[in-house]
Each structure stands twice: as structure tokens, then as C-alpha cells.
Amino acid sequence: MQKELLANPVFAMAAEQFDLVAEFLALPADLRERCKWPKRLISVAVPIQRDDGTTQVFYGHRVQHHLTRGPVKGGLRYHPAVDLGEVAALAMWMNWKCALMDLPYGGGKGGIACDPRHMSRGELERLTRRFTMEILPFIGPEIDVMAPDMGTNEQTMAWITDTYASHTGYLVPSIVTGKPLGMQGSAGRTQATGHGVAFLATNALHKLGVSPENTTAIVQGFGNVGSHTAMTLAAYGVKVIGISDASGALWNPGGIDIANLRVYVAEHGVVRDFPGADAIDPEEMLCQPCDILAPAALDRVITGENAGRLQCRILAEGANGPTTPEADRILNERGDIFVIPDILCNAGGVTVSYFEWVQNFQRFQWNEREVITKLETMMQRAFEKVTGFAERNKVSQRMAAQAIAIKTVADAKALRGMFP
Ligand code: NAD
To answer: Would the CB of 221 count as within 6 Å of ligand 1?
Structure first.
């Protein structure tokens, strides 16, 4: 493989984390090589007709990190900054997430470099259908199962399902997860990631001997993950005092009314100028005193620059890769912040995606209570596994989570062996 194709700061970060864990586990060199680098890199040109009649070529990628433990599972992202290296990093993290949660999957991720905010519904549909056609030979319910990520949603998944069905000649709902309920999606999938973030954040509070009432939270991002994290935290009695999105940040020490904010965002599209809070500098918001800080938007937002100034007790990583390795070193030295690492904290989404896939094979629908109860059971189990490992081995929570996951993948590869 041409490893220079993956040159990207996010991939460098995922690779650096992997190397640290491989050292800690003393993984043999051959297994290291097999676990670190992706199995398949797929890049395709996606030409579509724009609404004005012109043709534009977009570029899409799908990275299948490994298929040792089952089909790859992971989101599809529409964002201008998408490139192969970033997609490969996200695929690697999906790998560890699925292994940590004991889901029968490898990790995958995909993306198209485009700006969905400046594309019509028709253009997005053509883009999605054409991308699906281009990668048809590489996807399938037992090969690669996509799901929504930044810039995509359940409608995107419905178009993929329909395009795939026109190829097979019959509906195959298990081809993607995160589908609309009317197309055999799962109850509880939309809120699953945010629910899991809030559930584990309050688990961490209990571990620190604090009850959720009278605690405060700051949430970066008010999309799928951020809004449901904030909603669930508020339902647990946590006061959400700061919230930001790409338009700006809101601050209200008395607590922001999340239900009202959701109505406001549904109408205005952004959190800016919400009447129930003041404006605050988005960067400064992250460093204000609070019990729970939940970055739920972008990668690399907790950095060497601000990690020393954080004033939270719990860092609940809703986003993928929000903390840089340099920030990790600072947080480890400080030792006063309980980090719930991304591959554990935001695993609720892929866990309920797995439930959706299982329900699709069973041709049976579980209700929301069943889904959330099963989700909480699995997240609780993973949380205890990680905190137990970290305490026993005196390592950070991130090291613990990744070590458990990478060992699971390495063991599976060693068991399956290779063609001689
Ligand atoms: P989304 O597109 O629904 O929302 C993203 C949010 O981030 C929006 O509110 C946007 O305004 C905000 N944002 C963008 N730039 C920002 C900035 N500079 N400052 C503050 N906010 C900013 O995306 P999502 O699905 O909520 O995903 C968010 C993160 O969570 C991503 O890292 C994604 O990979 C990760 N994640 C998502 C899921 C899921 O189920 N959706 C699962 C696991 C991990």
C-alpha cells in the first residue's frame, strides 16, 4: 500500500495512538503491521448533474480497515474537508470501537468531499445514488454496512437502500443502518449516540461520588450527537450552561432550556441569537468551570493549547478524535479530569446500528424501551471493562479502551491465521 496516500493530521493522530498501544501490549511486529493499516482503500469519481444543467465531478472514498471479525461498519460523511487520510483515521477508530463494544464488525468509514449545505435535495440524491453505484462491488450486508455521519442523515440511508435494491431486485434493509423508521430503521437509533454520551457521563459522576442534580455541563456542537447529549443530560437533572455550534456559542449559568433551543434551531437552523442565553466566545466556553465537558462536533478541539486550562471534572468525548495526543499527555499529567474516550463514549450509535442490523435479519422490530435498555446494558459493561483495566494497569482511560480493543482485533487475526 502507498502509505503516503494517508498523509493527514487526523490519520497521524490515530496512528500515533495505535503505536503507543502496540508498545504497551508488546504486539509482535507482524501483527502490528496487520492491525494498523487498512485492508482496502476505495476512491471513486462521482459525476453528477447540478441543477443548472452542468456536470460536476465529486470524489468519494470508502476505507475498510479490516474484515477479520465481520463486515465493516461505519458512517458516510459529506463535508468539504473529507479526504482519504481522514476517512482512514475514522475507519481505524471505528475498528477499535466495534471491538471494544464486542460487536461482530470491523471498522469502516466513507465520505464525499462536498458541501451539502450548498446542494439541493435533488443534487444530494443524485450524488448519493451515484456514489452507491460506484462502490456497489464493495458493499453488502455481510461486507460493508454504512450509516449516517456528519452531513448525512436517514434520508441519505433511504436513497442508498433504494439504489442497492434496484441492483438486487429486492429490498435488503440490512445494507445500511440509521434508516428511517418507515424503512425498517430501529427505534432509538437517532438519539442513541447522545443518549450513550450522557449515560456514561452520569455513570462517571456516580463513580466520582457525585449525583447528577446540581451538576453542570458544557456541550460543543448541537447536531445529532450534541443535541441528544444535552437533552438527555437535562433529563437526568444536569444543568446545561454552555452550548455551541458552527454559528457561535451560548451561555446561561442558570441553565439553557434545551427543549426550547431545539425548537429554535429547527426554525433558524443555528443556535446563534437564541433568546434564552447570552453569547460567549466559543473557544473560551470550553475552558469555563463545569462538571461535564462534552465536545460533540469536531476532531482536535482539545489541544496542547487549551488542555491545561480546562476546568471540567469529566471530559465526555461525543465527537471522534476531539483530543490530540499532546492534549492527552497534559490531561494524563494533570490527572484531575476523568476522560471517557471517544471509542467508548460515542459507541451508542454503532451499538444501536448493530441492533438495527440484527432486527433487519430477524425481520422483527424491537420497541424503544428494549433498544435503550439493551444499549445501556452494553455501554455499562464496556465502561466497567475500561475503568477496571485502567485501574488495574495504572494507565489512562484512552489507553485502556484502545488496548482492550486492539488486543481483541489482534487475537482474532492471530486465531484466523494466514494462508501459508
Ligand atoms: P452533525 O452534522 O449532526 O452536527 C455537527 C454539529 O457540530 C453541528 O451543530 C455543527 O454546527 C457543529 N459544529 C461545526 N463546526 C463547529 C465549531 N467550529 N464549533 C462548534 N460546533 C461546530 O454531526 P453529528 O452526527 O452530531 O457528529 C458530531 C461528531 O460526533 C462527529 O465527530 C461524528 O463523527 C461523531 N459521531 C457521530 C455519531 C452519530 O451517530 N451521529 C456517532 C459517533 C460519533
So the answer is: yes
> Is the minimum distance from the CB of 224 to ligand 1 under 6 angstroms?
yes
- Looking from the CA of residue 178, the nearest atom of ligand 1 is 40
Residue 367 within any structural domain of the chain: no
Distance 224 CA to ligand 1 centre (A): 7
Domain membership of residue 160 as a residue range: 2-6+38-181
CB 242 less than 6 A from any atom of ligand 1: no
CATH number at residue 257: 3.40.50.720
Mutation test residue for ligand 1: of 10, 100, 149, 342, the one with most atoms within 8 Å of CB: 149
Residue 109 among the catalytic residues? yes
pTM above 0.90, yes or no: yes
- How many whole angstroms from 318 Cα to the centroid of ligand 1? 8
Question: 92-143, pLDDT tens digit by residue?
Answer: 999 999 999 999 999 999 999 999 999 999 999 999 999 999 999 999 999 9
Report whether residue 245 contacts ligand 1, using a CB cutoff of 6 Å: yes
Q: Does any ligand 1 atom lie closer than 6 A to the CB of residue 194?
A: no
Q: Which is the catalytic residue, given 36, 73, 97, 109?
A: 109
368-405 residue pLDDT tens: 999 999 999 999 999 999 999 999 999 999 999 999 99
Q: How far apart are CA 191 and CA 357, in angstroms?
A: 17
Split into its structural domains, the chain has a count of 2
